[in-house]
Amino acid sequence: FDICLADGACLEDCPVDVFEWVDTPGHPESERKANPADEDQCIDCMLCVDVCPVDAIDVDPGRENRI
Fold first, then answer.
1. β-pair partners for 65
2. Helix (H, G, I), strand (E, B) or coil at 6
3. DSSP-assigned letter for residue 39
4. Do the beta carbons of residue 48 and residue 57 sit within 8 Å?
5. What stretch of H or E contains 35?
6. pLDDT at residue 63, as a whole number
7. pLDDT tens digits for 6-58?
8. Which of 57, 66, 61, 67 is nearest to 18 (CA)?
9. Is the pLDDT of residue 67 over 50?
């Protein structure tokens, strides 16, 4: 998240709309970021990871086991 360049590729490619824009005023990389607000909807397709130009997205394969 901290290295996100806010190019929007993850928002465009995510088939289940996991991401939304959030304002990050004063951040050195971008004034807005793609936030995985609906992460519980993720289907682990990894499209967001594949299109992120700076590898800012790390999908945790064990998240479905969290309580």
1. none
2. coil
3. G
4. yes
5. strand 32-35
6. 55
7. 999 999 999 999 999 999 898 887 889 999 999 999 999 999 999 999 999 98
8. 57
9. no
Residue 63 lies in a domain: no
Q: Which amino acid is present at 42?
A: C
Predicted local confidence at residue 10, as pLDDT: 96
Tally the C-alpha atoms within 13 A of residue 17's C-alpha that lie toward its C-beta.
Answer: 1
Domain count, the chain: 1
Question: Cβ(47)–Cβ(19) under 8 Å?
Answer: no
Helical spans, DSSP H, in 18-64? 47-51
Assign residue 27 the CATH number of its domain: 3.30.70.20
In this structure, are residues 28 and 6 in contact, taking their beta carbons and an 8 Å threshold?
no
Range of the domain at 16: 9-55
Q: What is the DSSP letter of 64?
A: G
Contact 61, 44 (CB under 8 A): yes
